[in-house]
Write a structure and sequence with these properties.
Methane Monooxygenase Hydroxylase, Chain G, domain 1, disordered N terminus, RNA_pol_sigma70_r2, mainly alpha, sigma factor, 19 helices, transcription regulation
Length: 416
């Protein structure tokens, strides 16, 4: 017999799982119904609290996401009644009480795709677009998003609040733009999808090493964007982003050890890589090369293609990778790109040359910068400096798998 405490824990875990995996779908549907981001989030929050009370007693419903949607919809209608909004708005919302409402009309019938285009409207500043998308689509907490952006939680909360207010004040429509407006919105959408995927690939949360659901959602949405962008000639950067995600995702089965520790690329069991995703990613990269209009996502995908083409780490074509990073630096000269290029340079010119480049970047709030320095210092025999760099890396990441790997690397140096 299940004790009350264990039943409560089971119910709480079930609610947490549903919120983590279905938040974006549920909140997007509520926004479509009621046309109000704040109302959708508040109502879903109330539904989650009710679930925490009822599920331990009544059991988890067969369709948890549907249960949350129905409960949140009723709460939203209650809010509208209490606030005595305009009769026409209430009448419109009152008709939307069915659990499976028809999709809105138009060429795109994906609530989450509409949501991401709303969040990526040009009227919003780029940091706000990304933050709002991660909050609404990924269900990340404000604290998790703030950690990913390396800013205080209060700053991020203000940023998200202002973005929601801007959407309401400017009456930004909840839809995918028409073909003539799609091109100018596409770059912003791709940038956000890239960051959503990155959050799924290696989570900023202390509770999850990765977010498979978020990575899968980013890939699904990128495929959808690829489909609707055919009307404007299928820009090659859409293909590049999809290939980059697929080739990165192909390595996921080998990225974590049985104890949850991160496994770096050079130590991964490449027989575990997903050959279907690799074949699809390589085919898209070849098509991008044929079109000869390189951009940042295509170049990153090409780098991943070189990595996934090597049957063993020792067979990696580092000359080609450095050449691709040189091209990437020409179109996207950021410190992060420079850091990744330095890692490749170390394989060709040695750790001393790479360390000089890395030290010049000064990315002191970025865990991979400290980790890269630590590895290079260790290869140079500067164990004390390497230990300090690993400690700094551990202090600047909350990801449990990453912290475990960094700690193991630090311990492997010996000494205190």
């Amino acid at each position: 017999m299940t004790s009350p405490d264990s039943a409560a824990a089971l119910g709480a875990d079930a609610v947490a799982d549903v919120v983590r995996t279905e938040y974006g779908k549920v909140v997007a549907g509520l926004i479509r119904r009621f046309g109000d981001i704040g109302l959708a989030e508040d109502s879903l929050g109330e539904a989650v609290l009710i679930a925490l009370e009822r599920w331990p007693q009544d059991g988890v419903p067969p369709n948890p996401a549907g249960w949350l949607t129905t409960t949140a919809s009723r709460k939203a209608l209650d809010h509208l009644r209490r606030e005595k909004v305009r009769d026409e708005k209430y009448a419109e919302a009152a008709m939307l009480t069915d659990d499976t409402p028809p999709e809105a009309t138009g060429p795109v019938t994906d609530d989450r795709l509409r949501l991401i285009f709303t969040c990526c409207h040009p009227a919003l500043a780029e940091p706000a677009r990304v933050a709002l998308t991660l909050r609404l689509l990924g269900g990340l907490t404000v604290g998790e998003i703030a950690s990913a952006f390396l800013v205080p939680e209060t700053t991020m909360a203000q940023r998200i609040t202002r973005a929601k207010a801007k959407i309401a004040k400017a009456r930004i429509p909840y839809r995918v733009p028409e073909q003539q407006d799609l091109a100018e919105r596409l770059a912003g959408v791709l940038a956000v999808l890239y960051l959503v995927y990155n959050e799924g690939y290696l989570s900023s949360s202390a509770d999850n090493a990765d977010r498979q659901d978020l990575a899968d959602e980013a890939i699904r949405l990128t495929r959808a964007v690829r489909g609707i962008s055919e009307g404007i000639g299928s820009p090659p950067e859409v293909d590049g982003l999809l290939a980059l995600m697929l080739l990165s995702q192909a390595r996921r089965p080998a990225r974590f050890a049985d104890d949850g520790t991160l496994v770096t690329l050079d130590n991964q069991d490449r027989t575990q890589w997903d050959s279907v995703l690799i074949d699809e990613g390589h085919a898209i990269v070849r098509e991008c090369l044929r079109r000869n209009a390189p951009g940042p996502y295509q170049l990153q995908a090409a780098i991943q293609a070189v990595h996934t083409d090597a049957l063993e780490a020792s067979l990696t074509d580092w000359d080609q990778i450095v050449a691709l990073y040189d091209q990437l630096m020409a179109v996207q000269p950021t410190p992060i790109v420079a850091l990744n290029r330095a890692v490749a340079v170390a394989e060709l010119d040695g750790p001393q040359v790479a360390l000089a480049a890395v030290d010049g970047l000064g990315l002191t709030a970025y865990a991979p910068w400290h980790a890269t320095r630590a590895d290079l210092l260790g290869r140079l025999g500067r164990d004390d400096d390497a230990r300090r760099a690993y400690a700094a890396a551990i202090a600047t990441t909350d990801n449990p798998a990453e912290r475990a790997w960094l700690a193991t690397r630090r311990e492997s140096l010996g000494g205190r």
